[in-house]
């Protein structure tokens, strides 16, 4: 079986699935979560393991490499440095390409490379910075032109290699306060296939950042508008974004380096957008915790709430979780205790 690029598919998801299960002690923790839920009334835990398969597209991108008289190298690429490590990877790939030239003075090439911000006058058709593949396109453009003292390049990927699949898996455990609806993320373990990473430190930061951004989407950031279509939640007092308290208390991320792929940029893979979807593991774990909370409702007289089917919307905000946990029934239960005392 071959991919769109004509290569044999390296389907790493099964090994990733097993690896994250072992590294997170998933099976053992399921039993621990069950024991916790049996021993606690007002707090319930849930754990979930989620895989992802995400397709990305490699876009065309311009590039220019200039070797100055003092031996320094200036690189211009069409992408924008947004903190995603684009320039770091471009510097490394430029130095890697220039190191193939057999000449003196190629030591410490990375320190001699300087990436500068370009504009539409120096590089036309720069495109846009999105889709997790800007680094790949820009790096390939820099890699193409590494001999002339000043060379322009416009990288256009072959039609058969413009898209490929990314694989990853995550295990997340949460604890829900059924009185308030607060959800605490206790631990998250991620294994993500980066191909042959050009910079593991940069890719690790991208994976972690994308996951936290996904937490905002799945758990916090509720986009509310009024009848006129105007945004109601226009500040952090009402529109909740991920903060340091949102990050899992224990956050383990492993970058899996898979095999060589001739038609990908130095055999690398995207690490920006795909890991965002792994935050679904937190949403699924929250659903599992709510399900445990609803099991208690029958003994409190809420027979209808014992229906195992319920809709957990996105984002799963505190009010949503609080309602699904049966707050009204909890209040009734507490009132009954007070009346007996």
Automatic annotation (TrEMBL):
GO MF annotations, alphabetized: iron ion binding; oxidoreductase activity
InterPro entries named among the record's database cross-references: Ald_Oxase/xanthine_DH-like, AldOxase/xan_DH_MoCoBD2, AldOxase/xan_DH_Mopterin-bd_sf
Pfam families assigned: MoCoBD_2 (PF20256)
Keyword Nucleotide-binding: no
Residues of the Aldehyde oxidase/xanthine dehydrogenase second molybdopterin binding domain: 140-248
Keywords: Molybdenum
Presence of keyword Acyltransferase: no
Classification via PANTHER family: ALDEHYDE OXIDASE 1-RELATED, XANTHINE DEHYDROGENASE
Protein name: Indole-3-acetaldehyde oxidase
Organism in which the protein naturally occurs: Sesamum angustifolium
